[in-house]
Design a protein that fits this description.
Length: 167
């Protein structure tokens, strides 16, 4: 099997699993839980989901859909960011669906993994990726970033609820 397809196919179940776990945790929480944070230095679930969605916009939608960069990264981390439970759920779901759709596109076009989509854009300043980044490096960074933040969401859910039911 082509290594590019193998890499892409190995990412898909990871993102599907993260999506299921994140959405299942959100389902079991209250409206208030969406904006609660452990302390003033910590993010709420609303912050984390807004940030995940922002990452997807910057790292996938700009490439896949050619959308202009409208991300407001500072707002993602605003203390007291208000989002309803439904908004949090739908925003998280949308972010994961975009990731999975992009992976399906890459599966059909595995040669794109080594392309450098930001090469001719203004310098990137908001991310651990740079203008020379390949799609492969971008998606590896997405696996790490999404996993990191969904872990925080589940941790906050457990702090708030005590126990999360996964089935």
């Amino acid at each position: 099997m082509d290594i590019a397809i193998e890499v892409i196919e190995s990412m898909m179940p990871k993102f599907r699993s993260e999506m299921r776990g994140t959405l299942k945790a959100i389902e079991q929480l209250s409206e208030e839980d969406m904006t609660w944070s452990p302390n003033v230095e910590s993010n709420s679930i609303a912050n984390l989901v807004a940030h995940i969605r922002g990452c997807v916009h910057s790292r996938i939608e700009q490439i896949f859909y050619g959308t202009p960069d409208t991300r407001d990264r500072e707002k993602e981390f605003e203390r007291g960011l208000q989002m309803s439970k439904e908004e949090v759920y739908q925003t998280a779901k949308e972010a994961f669906e975009i990731i999975l759709q992009y992976l399906e596109h890459l599966k059909l076009n595995p040669h794109l993994l080594m392309s450098q989509p930001f090469l001719n854009l203004p310098p990137l300043t908001y991310s651990q990726v740079n203008n020379q980044t390949t799609i492969l490096n971008l998606m590896i960074a997405m696996v790490r970033e999404i996993h990191y933040h969904t872990g925080q969401i589940v941790y906050i859910a457990k702090l708030r609820k005590g126990r999360i039911v996964w089935q």
